[in-house]
Amino acid sequence: MNSKLTIQEKLQDLRKSRHLTLKQLEEQVGISSSTLGEYENNDYKDISSHSLEVLCRYYEVSADYLLGISENNVEANTPFEELHLTDDAIAVLKSGKINTRLLSEIISHPSFRKMMIDSEIYVDRIVSGKLHDLNVMLEALRQTKLLEENVDPEDIVMQTLKVAQISDDDFFGSAISKDLMEILSSIREGHVTDPTTADTTGADMVREALDLADNFKGSHEEKMVAAYLKNLQIDYNTLTNEEFVTQINILRKSKYFKSPFNMRGKGRRGKYF
Predict the structure, then answer these.
(1) CA–CA separation, 5 vs 71, rounded Å?
(2) Maximum distance among all alpha carbons in the chain?
(3) Domain count, the chain
(4) Where in the sequence is the domain holding 84, given as residue range(s)?
(5) Which of 83, 161, 181, 256 could form a disulfide with 142 if both were Cys (CB 3.0 to 4.6 A apart)?
(6) Residues 121 and 104 placed together within one structural domain of the fold
(7) DSSP state of 199
(8) C-beta of residue 1 within 8 angstroms of C-beta of residue 101
(9) In the Cβ-directed half-sphere of 98, how many Cα atoms lie within 13 Å?
(10) Is there a single domain that holds both residue 96 and residue 140?
(11) pLDDT one-digit tens code per residue, 8-57
């Protein structure tokens, strides 16, 4: 994800926060919906000074915010002391070495407060004493049982008394990790359509194309054409005979495309030739 909101994202967020379609926004600001759509599109075009002024007035935001000079819309002039951050924390945030947009989304996530409370309980050892006392009690009971005659130290009761003992590192390590993954998973899903999100569909498309070719009823060349077109998201069955022949002739120029028979002079396909 980008470290800052893009102009397109800001414009889209502002419009959606008011539950407006592009057409409805056009009626409000007098800028055509097609132009407004281009402003929000990933293939960004420059915003005219007139449109910038109109949109800033309508959304009640500064030009600095829309143009990316500032990332703050509501809290534009909040002094550092009101953030209660240490000098070291401020230095890290100003360094540009971390993705402050991701950090902002983590902090503003509804589950962040729970993660911080769990972290505070762990750091301040608030329940460490209780866990220690519980572990001592369980171990004492296990040792007492071991003194009895004919006790199998590996039976279910003895093992239960052993594994029931847990350190605060293990307990809170699991709890805080779960809190953080809940936050990150939510943020991750929210950015699945971002242009910076890695495309994970390539391998799936190749597998689908191979499955199609394997199950395709046709000649060797037809199978290869079907797989090739599948990767291009073109329906093989929509090809005309002329398009098919052209496709075959093009692919024959590749050393990877080996035809088991000659198609020269054939203008139509059997089942497909």
Answers:
(1) 8
(2) 94
(3) 4
(4) 80-108
(5) 161
(6) no
(7) P
(8) yes
(9) 11
(10) no
(11) 888 998 999 999 999 999 999 999 998 998 888 876 667 888 999 999 99
